[in-house]
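## retry 2 of 3
previous attempt timed out at serialization; input unchanged, resubmitting
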Amino acid sequence: MLPAGTPVVERVAHWSSRHRAAAIFGWLALVALAWVIGTFAPGTDARSSPAGDSGTGQAALDRQDSREPFWENVLVPKDSPAVADLMTTLPASGAVADIRGPLDDPDQVSADGRSGLVTFRILGTGTEIRANLATATAAVDAVAARHPDARLAQAGDLSVSGAVDKSIKEDIGRSETRSLPLTLLILLAVFGSLVAAAIPVLLAGTTVLATFGLLSAVDNWIPVNSATSSMTLLIGMAVGVDYSLFFLRRVREERAHGVGESIRIAARTSGHVIAVSGLTVALCVTGLWFTGLDNLRGLTVSTILVVGLAVLASVTVLPATLSLLGTRVDRLRIPLLGKRGTRSRFWAGVASTVTRRPALWTGIAAGLLVLLALPAAGIRLQDPAPTESLPRSVPVIDAATRVQAAFPGVTMPAHVVVWSDRGPVDTPAVRRAVEELTARTPKPAIVVPVGDALVVRIPLGSNGNDEVADRTLTALRETLLPQTIGQLDGVHFAVAGRTAEAHDFTAQVLARAPYVFGFILLLAFVLLLLVFRSVVVPAVSILLNLLSVGAAYGVLTLVFQDGFLAPLLGFTPYGGVLGWLPMFLFVLLFGLSTDYHIFILSRIRERRQAGSTLQEAIVEGTASSSGVVTSAALIMTGVFSIFLSLAAIEYKMLGLGMAFAILLDATVVRGVLLPAALSLFGDRLWKPVETLKDQSRTLHLS
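## retry succeeded, writing output
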């Protein structure tokens, strides 16, 4: 029996190690139940709604009894016989309608007079649309084959989005297949045993499986897209392996006490830290909810689920498995691997060096982080256009780039949605206002009836997603539309489309950022205050985390916005950084870095409370924890570094930002700056803890 007052985590782990079958089969039953729920639960996937004005326009379209049609464009030399052939062949395919070309419309001729644009609408609904697109594409290819001297380039709504979707799926598949072997290799290097290395991977894998099952039911109410699923997989594998690694290494360290007692000690120490860290990560991620953005809400729910299940597995099925295996956990050893002790001599030497001259090393490490953060002062938040996201080696992206060069903005037009609460809006007065609008905007524009509404597709210039497009979008919303359609009584308008959605998304992220950042900073301070009973510890921790995140921002700006190392990483800079990425990095990195922070500080506090001097506690606590923290960080860094090999620039940004920040945090921040800062503050750091203990002892004696 455990004594009264034993912490909950230790009680749960102790029960699991004594009731191994119940704990193991209970976990497997939970995973199976989650899979069944996700597979057979009725319902439909929730749709995400764009932010701001674009969301208003999309909502107006969703209320119509028909859907906005898809349009395709074919760039062709203006004076080539292929133009007439194309204008004849496409109608004969039976797959398209509303064909416009340079023969009868001067707006379909490029500014230099050399290129023509053939635009057509894809017929059909549902699955018919894709089939008709294939038919139309085959017709274009046939024309191209008959005119080998004329270079035809097709790019439009469906062809470009299809290429992007295909690339995303391929990228996700590559990241999944590459991350697992890399994780296993690192764990083999850490433990030197196939059995010990397999345990964290199996627990993390079942955690992710259970999460996906539950998400399949949750996404009836909260949108969960493919990017969210990919991030859930990576976060689940990372934290699942990390938590198992923390627990396993502590069990190994306490092995001299016997199997049962080593598990109890690990539960009381590492298990407690895992629970606190998991709670910290989950609560930090809830800050994304304040953005009010559907996609980030889906990521919030998925991260909370996967982290919560990872913590549950670490304090239940992991102790039961270790109790069942006993010393057999080290079976199937790999020669020359995993023979290092639990105490890191390297980090002990580093900590010993920096604690002897803490002011000097604090200044050097902090100065390095500030230097890395400086480029972030000029960061520009902007999402890439599809032609900027993927390389031109993708045929459709190359075609879209050529179309954009000849007809700026045509592949990413603004969708001006016009509707009325009184019924159909397609009236002579509205048509006259639309004609006045299109006469003052870039060409070519297309007017499309959608149910009782109208959609006016207007190119925004340039690539449709840069400063030129933003200025045109602003002029459209603030000047041109109010002066034309806005003069009609009872007629409403809103601007949707990819450019508008990206603009509104970034605007809402920036508007809500102070609330998100403030919530997380306050939350982190309160949690660390409760854990360590010291005001100095959370203040120092938050400052270190801010330096780490700032350095990550600076490197992202330097690499992706300014183009440093672009040839090496295989991308073309477009002059910005993803609009949602800085906030996402802040939230996730704050949670994960606090995770490592708590682990190291807990070991230092153990030594301090055992009677060691402050310097001895810092050195030995760092030596006994930085090794496992570095191993865990290497796993996360390796997993996220895989993103650098993917095609989409968005994934490259995410991979570099996460990998660099985690590696920097686990080495420079936790290995150098943290010991130096703790030594610099001296006994003032832990005095509140000792004061509380003295007060408690006095009350007990009285």
